[in-house]
Amino acid sequence: MDFEPKILGIACNWCTYTGADLAGTTRLKYPQNVRTVRVMCSSRINPSFIIRAFQLGADGVLVGGCHPGDCHYGTGNLYARRKLAVTKKILEFAGMEPKRFRVEWISASEGKKYAEVVEEFTNDVKALGPQTKFKIRKD
Amino acid sequence: MQNPYIPMPVEVTKIVTEVETNDIKTFRLNFVNKEDEENFKYLPGQFAELSILGKGESPIGIASSPTQPGYIEFTVQRAGTLVTGIVTTALHDLDVGARIGVRGPLGNSWPIEFLEGKNVVVVGGGFAFTTLRSLIHYMLHKDNRPRFGDISVVYGARTPGLLCYKEELAAWEKRKDIKMHVTVDKGDANWKGREGFVPTVCKEVGPSPENAVTVICGPPIMIRFTLPVFFELGFAKENILTSLEMRMKCGVGKCGRCNVGHKYVCKDGPVFSFAELDKLPRDF
Amino acid sequence: MTAMKKIEENLRKEAKRLLEGGEVSVVLAYGRGYDENHPMPFAARTVEDVDSLVFNEYCTFNLARYLPKYPPKTKIAVAVKAADSRAVVQLIQEEKVRREDLVILGIPVTGMKDQKTGEVIDNKTTCNMANPVLYDILLGDEIHGFKGGSPYDVLAELEGMDHDARMAFWKKEFEKCIRCFACRKACPMCYCDPCFMDASRPRWADKSPTPDGHLMYHLTRFYHLAGRCIDCGECSRACPVDIPLYLFHKKLAKECEDMFQQAAGMKIEDKPAMVNYGNQDSDEMLK
Amino acid sequence: MLKKIALEKLGDLVSALMEKGPLYAPVKGEKAVDFQEITNPADVILDFYNTAMSPKFAFFPQSEDLIRYRLGKEATESEAVSLDAKPSVILGVRPCDAKSFEIMDRHFLGAGIIDPYWNDKREKTTIIGYAFDPSTAADPADFYNTLGISASDTAGSDIFMIRTDKHLLFKGITEKGDRLLKELSVLEAGSKTDEKTFEDKAKKGGEVKTRFMEIQDKAVAGKLVQVFNNKEFWEKATAACISCGACTFVCPTCYCFDISDETLFRDGVRKRFWDACMFTDFTLEASGHNPRPRIFQRYRQKVCHKYSYHVDKYGCISCVGCGRCTRSCPVNIDIYSIIESASKL
Fold first, then answer.
1. Cys-Cys with D250: which of B59, C11, C94, D324 at CB 3.0–4.6 Å?
2. Is C20 exposed, middle or buried, given 0-12, 13-18 or 19+ CB atoms closer than 10 A?
């Protein structure tokens, strides 16, 4: 059987989540591997969420926010960019494959971009295989 | 050998919300196994660890009396800071029929033999009335009542809505063999009882220290102001008893966190007289 | 007289003057421990206490750690080496201490030694600077022309590894952790109360020492110190089981410097990097 | 009973012990030496001063499962973890650490309640003590002499091991020890000369000097009660303390633990694990009240617990002077100096 990765999506309420909605309503086809959690702003994401997701068995984490400058709250995603950049460096230096974590700016009108990003990311994660580095093992 | 860390299964059979703020509830628990019930022999003043798997354990004073066979009761206040309060919150979310665990009985009890033949003054404040309720039930039981002298109770809460066990208080008021002095800091439109702080009421009631023992439980601030009243009335420190509160985990004197001096509150306490407390380091 | 002895003498002289004149109510410096190689952090409060002050190459502690616990408006003199002074600057940036409450006694020094191993720590576990970045009084002569390589040289080996090897490396190191929290308690920047590890709602990591909990604890702590860690290396020296935490902190400090063009604790006027954003920030950093 | 084996045959002995069950022995890590379960006989080393962590983990592991459970929609299934420690051996326990087991016994097996987890492992484990090398000076942090322990004290060991130039000598101290010695066919019987050597070496161990002060259990316990309220003293003595748990975790006689439930999805374990009186939340009550919010109060608790309360409750000081707390303290607080200055007050 093919490996179907489990991917956690964390999407900002105002842009990416709405963009994902648009991808759905315009009937774009994209893989179903992403399970999305909505947050009010990408800057609400605590890097521990991402570490925890990997610990609980996520094969990849995709974060979506508004384009810099378009944040609903003005500057939220500018802070988020710094936070997520550091998170990425942490994951990489700890030994996680950097391709398992991706941040994309997707606006409410970019349903097509959303579908493309999900497809591309799913394929990337698929190629990497199951994530075992952080996953909590019960034994 | 009995493993002291493994709880016994119990079922929640009744939940009573005691106060209008909804954060104090009394849980009635029935043992699932008959032999556990028989082994669970306790006296008023003892406590037990209530255990919810997945959440943890919390030490709670037993609010029922051994003279009420068939079940045990615990009155629990929902606590909560960022760091604490998981178990009490989970308890408050329980419904009748839920299965939890109980470990105990633990600790010492109110010294029944010491109290026998003496007049007993019970002083309680707010939610800390639980093991006092157990004691009152125990003393009022018809088999036990003759063993004790006069019983008087001073019980206070901030408002009428914050008094626990309202029905029982009313029933006790009607009895002749117990003198009740229920008071609130501030009454409301429907409150016909006494108004005033517990220390003031104690002064007014003015129990005689002659052959009498005071049993006192309440928030630290109440105890601090009530103690001088009893000293003034002539009570000796040996005859003023209280129940200490400390963070506990194991309940059997092993985990080491509840010690005050060389005493473990969970095992050598929680009941101490103020004379005993005087000998211990001020570390509680 | 050696440079160290001279610093010790100046330290006593200045401490005495400050306490006598009532300029400060406490001098945070170093005192005698149970032997020469094991001095202790020491808070001198009276002129008599001053005789107990010492300074030698084993006085590695970062005294900035003690600053936030004093109530505001307490006048404090604090002895700082280069990295420690950066910690003070960072604490001022984060409004944990006030510049006007401090008399900073700068110690220009190199060649400090690890108490356990006796190794010189300059660029290995600390930021490899010789002179404090901020001080009111300098206790020794400013050091010129000190070179000892970049503080990030020690990263080369780990950076050269592939991801799997690095994961294996950290797993092995974290496995040693006993959760004594010495790293967090020794750190001048770890002043949160309660720490995320103590919070029970949510419970971020297992309370008991499990490898998964260790991973969560350390990675999150690294994140919390990103852009704030001033590379004093105190966490690694405090660790009773010798986990090289400094390597991760150094890596993040290096990356943050690259990405945000700002090193932690260099200037009082700076805003801490992680509560700020810059016009020059680009999506490149997310790649 | 005295037995011996040539030094170069240590590997054979280790293999023989490994056949009996899990063997814990000192292994060299990157920096420090520590007890580990041996998988390769060549890992065992005997050239070490003392381990960084104490051997208490063998009976009181840092984390121990009590109950396993599975949360269901309707009911929670649970099962108590059974006590089934395998008979094991700890090789190379220094005299001060061996003594610590006796002190811990008083707590875990005393005061009316027997701790089943400690008891189970304790009964099934044989301890092979190992004398400090009398030709090496004691570490400046050590003060086991103060607690009446010598570098070749056999108390607490089942078998006591002394190294000579070419041999390892083993003397059975307890019945359990004798039994094991009898079973080990790789050992040769010791001669009269060997016995003499053993005695001589043991005597030499008595000459190793650590830091020393005259203390009497009852006197120091009483003194600390007097000093208890001297806030100034405690604040000054513990001013450097950062309230981490390093000292208590490395200590062979610290036994405080916490119990917590840990669930992953639906499966979980109730565990007990080491806790430290130095942590802020150690005594934090559900109400938010904390009887020991200040660092000096917590450190005072630690010192008084070891040197005063333990004497009152169990009749002995709960410290063996192994010096670990001092060595591992990030800020070099020295409990010996604190006791010393407290006694002088």
1. D324
2. exposed
